[in-house]
Amino acid sequence: MSHSSSHQHQPAVRPEDVLPEGVDSTAINGMTVRKGSVAAFVANALRLDELTEGTPEYAALVAQMRELAPALRAIGLNDVFRPHSPAVERILAEAA
Q: Quick one: where's region Disordered (predicted)?
């Protein structure tokens, strides 16, 4: 997914352009990204604030987010969105 200006005149990218119907993953910038990765990360990030740091539940959530973070970086999510939560920001920064 290049962000160069040579793509200015192309139509908007639709979800099916990135991941056609019936396909569960795709390679983006050399990283395999599964369908649902962004939604899973966001759901976990929202839940993180409800849990107490140091508990097994918190640790499990952070581990899953760390596993997903490189895929989010590969698709460029960090280039357009900044997390509100310092904990989520640290998790994404560690994936760099």
A: 1-23
